[in-house]
Structure prediction request, 293 residues.
Amino acid sequence: MYDDVLLPTDGSPGAEAAIARALDLARTGGSILHALYVVDTGPEPPGLAGEHRDTLRAAAEGRGRQATALVRERAADLDLRTVREIREGVPYRQILEYAEEADVDLVVMGTHGRSSAEPARLGSTAERVLARADVPVLTVRLATGDEQPPRSGYGMYDEVVVATDGSDAAERAADHALGIAERYGADVHVVYVLDTSVYELADAERSIVGLLEGGGENAVERVATEARERNLPVETHVLRGAPARTVLDYADGVEADLLALGTRGLAGQGERFLGSTTRRVLGRADCPVLTVR
Prediction:
């Protein structure tokens, strides 16, 4: 399914969960794992002397060698082939360029989480990669405090949630999610949300509500049919509410190990930015999120 998996890493302790996910997907698929560290050459503090600049650059390169070596060591324990790369430049551009040059099939990267006191947020690098990548991207919330990385093995993905709106991007995301579910023997939950912020369903004619619900039922059934063909346990739900919040609440309720959706919905095909629902889901999700353009 994935011959080459790209893991951009910064070597921080919080990235351990992303490393664990990338290693296990590569392990189960016999993939080559590419560990990439980017030395950020963005704007520097004004007045920074050349010798200080060189010192900072050398320190960053040292961190990169250490971070990628750690991934290689972990991969060697699993008998995985690895490629290490350290580059300089704007991080998201280097990640995208490397992904294209190495012809990778999947990018796995960490992204900011949300504490109870913080608003939903995505790191700028992650958001730009998500919006522009031509391959699926699996984002994993950076761990905080004493959180432990997930245990390797078939229990890593037990519950997979697919959020669909019937768009091509959502169906591509579903296909990848079903592939992971099949690999790990997971149960599949397919969800469609009637957006009550757009449709005043309480005041709408019954026939109109029926058409909207019928469209949702058709969308989830297409994914469910594919799941059944793969002999996967599957259930479907057409829900009502604000899409991002409803999807996240459902994922929390089933203790999802993976949530999959398209980066853009029906109204924005082909545009290189994230839809508002996708952005909100990515900013608030506790479980890994798989997105596909």
